Amino acid sequence: MGKVSDLYRQRIASGALRHDDAQAAVLPHMDRVLDQLQAAPPQKPRSAWRAFLGVGSPDPVPAVQGSYLWGGVGRGKSMLMDLMADAAGDIPTRRVHFHEFMQEIQAGLNEARKRGEQDTVRPVAEAVAAQVRLLCFDEMQITDIADAMIVGRLFQVLFDQGVTVVTTSNREPDDLYKHGLNRQLFLPFIALIRQRMEVVCLDSRTDYRQNRQGGQVWFAPADAAARAELDAVWAELTGDATPEPLVLTVQGRQVTLPAHVGRAARSSFWDLCGKPLGPADYLAVARAVDVLLIDGVPRLSASNYNEAKRFVTLIDALYEARVRLIASGADQPEQLYNEGEGSFEFERTASRLREMQDAAWGRRDPAGD
C-alpha cells in the first residue's frame, strides 16, 4: 500500500498532472484513511455462539472514519478518487460510480424480496461488506426517492460491518436530496455522513473539465485528423488512467459506454445512436458523466432517420444536464441534416450543438445540480 500523496507527486513529476494547491490540501485527509485502514486489526473470527449456530459473517472490526470530498464540477475529485483506489494496495477495495452502485443495490433488494426476506437491506449490505473494506464512490448524489428511502439504513449496516466509505460529490452533505419528496426521512443519513465521514471541501478555482483554453470541441470532417484530435483531448482529460467500459442499467436493460475514466466517457455515434435506446437511457448517460466524447457523427437524412432522432434526444439530455460534449462529425452542426423529414426539427439541435461549443458553456453551481 502506498500513499495518495506519493502517487500525486509521481504523476506531477511524470507530467501527467499539474500541481494544484487545493488538490494538494486534501491529500493528507486521504492518506489518513489509508494509514488507519492499514493499521486496523485484522478481521475477527465469528464469536463462539455465532459459529456454533452457523450464522453470520466474521465479527467486523470498527469502520475507519471515511471521507466525503465535495466541490465544484471539474476540480479533480474523480482523479483523486482514482489515485486513492490505486494507492489502497492489498486493502479489499472497490471504486464505483455511486449511481451504478445504487442500481446494483436496488437489484439486490428486489431479489431479497423475492426470497421473502423480512429485512431486505441487511443481506444486501452484508454481501457487499463480505467483499470490501474500502468503498470508493464517485459522484454521490441522491435524486431517486427509492434510493433516498433506503440509503441511510444501507450505509448504517455497511459501517456496522466495518466498511469504510470515501466518496466525492458536487454538493455538501446538507444539500443532498435538497427539496426531495419526504426529505425529512432522509435527514438522518446526512447526520450519519457527518458522524462517520470527514467532510472535506476541494476548493479549487480551476475547472479542469473546462480548462481547454477555449479549445476546439467540434472537429469536422470526421477523418483521421479529427480522430487524432479526439485522442489528444481524451489523453488530456484522463491522463494515464486506464479506461474501462461503463455499464448503466436502465429499466432492466444495459447501456454501455465503451470507455470511461472518472466522469469522462467516450463512445462512437453508432454505439449510442445505432441501438434502440430512448430518453431514459440518454438521461442515465447524462447523469453519469460530465464530459462525453463522441466519434463520427455522420450526415443525417431519411436513410438514417431513427439514428438521427436518437441523436436529437441524446443532445437534449446532454444539454439539459450541462454535459460538455466533444465530438467529430461529417460536417459542422448546421450542415449535418440539410434535407428530408426531420431536417427542420434538427435546426434546434444544431443551435444547441453550436451553443455547447462555447468555452464558458457547461459551468454550473455545484449546489444547483
TrEMBL record:
Keyword ATP-binding: yes
TM segment ranges: none
Organism domain of life: Bacteria
Example GO BP: cell division
The entry's keywords: ATP-binding, Cell cycle, Cell division, Nucleotide-binding
Tagged with keyword Cell division: yes
Pfam family, one: AFG1_ATPase
Entries under InterPro entries matching the protein: ATPase_AFG1-like, P-loop_NTPase
Name of the featured protein: Cell division protein ZapE
Species of the source: Paracoccus marcusii
Name of the gene this protein is made from: zapE
